[in-house]
Structure formats: C-alpha cells, structure tokens
C-alpha cells in the first residue's frame, strides 16, 4: 500500500511536467514503470497468461534501453530518476 501511495505522489509530480515534456525520457520511463507494476500484479493472479508475460518482457526491455540512453547522456538525471522510482541500477552501466 505504501508503494501505491508513493506512485500516486510521484505521478502527480510527473503530471505537472507532462504538459511540458510528455516525450521526455524520464516521463517515458515513469509510464513504463507504471505499466510494469500493473502487469506484475496482473500476472500474480493469472500465472499462465503468456501473452502478458511477453508484453511485460518487451516493456522491461524498452525501459532498460531508455535508462541506458539516459545514463550515457546525463548521469545525474539518471541517478535522480532511479532514486525517485526505486528502480535498481543497471548491471551494464
């Protein structure tokens, strides 16, 4: 429950920025993170939903590519985003 409240607070902060920069890397990573959490909770109930598992893997790969790009371009913004969203740092970094 604490995680959901954190997401809603973070979501409102990103909503304010959405009007300005909805195509930014940070916003895309944030939206992928929300999709990942939704799919993860769905897969806890429906363990044999293989199409959703495939979709989850694709979204995870997209988010990883965006995070890799951001870490190469701007390490400070990368660190801030990782800490805001409570995502583990990439091993390949």
TrEMBL record:
<keyword id="KW-0687">Ribonucleoprotein</keyword>
<keyword id="KW-0150">Chloroplast</keyword>
<comment type="similarity">
    <text>Belongs to the universal ribosomal protein uS15 family.</text>
</comment>
<keyword id="KW-0689">Ribosomal protein</keyword>
<dbReference type="GO" id="GO:1990904">
    <property type="term" value="C:ribonucleoprotein complex"/>
</dbReference>
<dbReference type="GO" id="GO:0005840">
    <property type="term" value="C:ribosome"/>
</dbReference>
<keyword id="KW-0934">Plastid</keyword>
<dbReference type="InterPro" id="IPR009068">
    <property type="entry name" value="uS15_NS1_RNA-bd_sf"/>
</dbReference>
<dbReference type="InterPro" id="IPR000589">
    <property type="entry name" value="Ribosomal_uS15"/>
</dbReference>
<protein>
    <recommendedName>
        <fullName>Small ribosomal subunit protein uS15c</fullName>
    </recommendedName>
</protein>
<comment type="subunit">
    <text>Part of the 30S ribosomal subunit.</text>
</comment>
<dbReference type="GO" id="GO:0006412">
    <property type="term" value="P:translation"/>
</dbReference>
<dbReference type="GO" id="GO:0003735">
    <property type="term" value="F:structural constituent of ribosome"/>
</dbReference>
<dbReference type="Pfam" id="PF00312">
    <property type="entry name" value="Ribosomal_S15"/>
</dbReference>
<dbReference type="InterPro" id="IPR005290">
    <property type="entry name" value="Ribosomal_uS15_bac-type"/>
</dbReference>
<dbReference type="GO" id="GO:0009507">
    <property type="term" value="C:chloroplast"/>
</dbReference>
């Amino acid at each position: 429950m604490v995680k959901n409240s954190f997401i809603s607070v973070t979501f409102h902060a990103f909503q304010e920025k959405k009007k300005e920069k909805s195509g930014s890397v940070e916003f895309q990573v944030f939206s992928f993170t929300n999709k990942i959490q939704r799919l993860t909770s769905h897969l806890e109930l429906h363990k044999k939903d293989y199409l959703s598992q495939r979709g989850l893997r694709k979204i995870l790969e997209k988010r990883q590519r965006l995070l890799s790009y951001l870490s190469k371009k701007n390490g400070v913004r990368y660190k801030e985003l990782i800490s805001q969203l409570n995502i583990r740092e990439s091993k390949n970094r």
